[in-house]
């Protein structure tokens, strides 16, 4: 999923599992009894030294890294208790790994909770309807336990309108709600959040599926407070239903702290211009449809729209373009030089339409695009964006028999021109070992390498050889690699490379690969830091 991938981090603030009361990876409840005590050595157990425990809690307040906190909780019982009392952020990567009761019993002062539900395959409709990941038991448990909770982030969870109403009722200081790839709720639930969460700073809806019928739509935008709001981020580009634009314009006008706004495809360029006039302070802007609502020849001119972009001097991130009219693309030229992030992953642009835009984006660090730009378009990116750190190339047609427009040629061009690249996701139909080896040598700082060769068991399309040497070069030459996705025709040799050299890999995705069970053995024996394995494994 294009937007969901923004929030698919493998570096959570804190972690917990049912079997590991210390919150870390391994070992169970390790603690040493406190044998300090007086009374002439009468053999009585003394309570912990309260002064030392208070000092410990004060120190742990400054410990923010998940790995450090998890390690601290395993030292002894008093450290375990102090760490639990001072933890403010909790990350649970699998909502079934621990019960809500267990979480609230252990942690007493949480301010932020992040929950993940369904596996990533749900993004591709590979998880049946009604599979689970219901947030209801979590909200019911969190409400009484954490009246000062301020932030909830849910990913691939089933969320009902009643759940959202309970969130609004339970947390009077609630400030941030992010729903990523969630389903089950409607505009009714959004209306309750907007109306009752008076301190709301962030409402981000990313790749969600709302269950609204046309006759059940609620004017949720108008439910925000009529006074000045604290809103800093409002993202609803995935909400497919119409909304009250006048209410949105008024909301933007009374939200002076708003920095991030992404609207849906029901917003035209005429309406876009009105929003920009109301909020010149925006730094992240999602453009909606990016076409005129007027009849051909009678809409907003490119010059008028360009004037609005020129006046928006703070914009550094642009997205949207969901139903783009390429004739309006020159209007964004005034902000291109300042852009650090550009998302064209919903715009079916050709290379000729992309090149005039990308040549102005000299400071771009993140770029998402459809494969319709072809190898020629990627060459333009490579020629201009030497500071690029993240590239994602999505397929217009993800089926196995589609004719992709990008190939090894585009990948090699990127590796030659964007040598600071740290993360790449690349969908294609044709690839060569030579191109992948070139990327491993030209971009040694890669942390994420996700190559998705669509179609089962596709070899190097020039030599006919397996892709073993290409992926082997990636793990050998990219010493910082923590996430790897492999595809194409692969043998056990590729997995021997991964097990031997991929010592930092935490997430490994394997598609249609492996010719024996030795492949998995190489991975499990060699990748000692592996946390997540996603596989459509045919070697077993």
UniProtKB/TrEMBL annotation:
GO terms for cellular component: SCF ubiquitin ligase complex. Residues 1-48 are annotated as: Disordered. Part of a SCF (SKP1-cullin-F-box) protein ligase complex. May interact with auxin and auxin-responsive proteins. Residues 1-10 have a biased composition (Acidic residues). Signal peptide: none annotated. Residues 110-154 form the Transport inhibitor response domain. This is F-box protein FBX14-like. It comes from Panicum miliaceum (Proso millet). Residues 49-88 form the COI1 F-box domain. GO terms for biological process: SCF-dependent proteasomal ubiquitin-dependent protein catabolic process. It holds the Pfam family F-box_5.
